[in-house]
Predict the structure.
Amino acid sequence: MTDTVLVSGGSGYIAGFLIRQLVAEGWMVHTTVRDLAKEGVVRELLAVDNSRVKFFAADLNADTGWTQAMAGCGFVAHVASPLPAGVPKDADELIVPARDGALRALRAAKAAGVKRFVMTSSVAAIAYGRGRGVHTFTEADWTDLSKPGISPYVQSKTVAERAARDWVAAEGGELEYCSICPSVVLGPVWSRDYSASVMIVRKLLDGSMGACPDFGFGVVDVRDVADLHVRALKAPGMAGERFIASGRFVKLREVADILRAQLGSEAAKVTTRNVPDWMVRVAAHFNPLARAVVPELGSVRHQDASHAKAVLGWATRPIEQSIVDTARCLIDLGIVKI
Ligand code: NAP
């Protein structure tokens, strides 16, 4: 394989694993960072053959750099999008870069003659706004943004994927577009600048999550998410495809139990307590993170990944392994002090 692929957001958690797998499989990789001052540190952490990766400066909020980054690329994995640990006051802080950045990347890809554009979307674009209860979601579902209480991040991913699909339908020409929709991504951490998703395990391990609210999420391993992107870049007939990338749904309570069962004394600070729903509702009056959890309380949202398994031969690790590997890395990197 000597194709060249652009991976946007090369400093990110998922992008790091993706770039490593692509280089290992023989691809040439172009990648973007907001500021080329990051290139040295990202190269060091990636620890791949430097001659196979070229860095370009490009921000989702500006046109500069995307044309240069795409030149010579037959494929794009558009991974970059803001994923903050907190909740911004203004949803546009996330929606605008997510949507406009995807459109910038698409326009530059078409102009450069890119064949295929794989976009990292999220189950955030699939599984929200459906009310409480037990639901099973597939790729046919879309988050209902007309419902109240949808978080800025969920809005940003839904708006961005919709805008990308609409643009491709209207103006994409021969460009093949497909999306990958991961649930909460865990697994080994390759940088101290880790993704917000890893924060859940960090807060349990360091004891700052003093009790578990009754909410949960699908979990998927970062190595499996990278692998699904590579499969979607290589397989024939991907135009219009959408793939959920998720292992099983797990309640936060169970994540805490897995950590304590598997890590012994290293999980001594992991809570054994639960927070009653009423207390989360009270906290929601002054805490934006609690506010984001309220619509989730008591709900179970299975995300069915059978399409990726059937069409792309994809497989996932057990979520227990991803959870424990996250914790191990956080301890080994000194991010969590035991
Ligand atoms: P991450 O480590 O925070 O990576 C996000 C990347 O986006 C970083 O490289 C970041 O660059 C870049 N970025 C953010 N704002 C940007 C801007 N204005 N211009 C250019 N680049 C910008 O998070 P991740 O987990 O790898 O997420 C990657 C993708 O997967 C995102 O699209 C996210 O929505 C999606 N996703 C993640 C999860 C999850 O649980 N982690 C689940 C579903 C979907 P800087 O390093 O400069 O900030």
Notes: Residues 92-112 form the longest helix (21 residues). Residues 136 and 302 are 5 Å apart (CA to CA). The pocket of NAP is lined by residues 9, 11-15, 34, 59-61, 79-83, 97, 120, 122, 157, 182, 184-185, 195, 197 (CB under 6 Å). The radius of gyration is 19 Å.
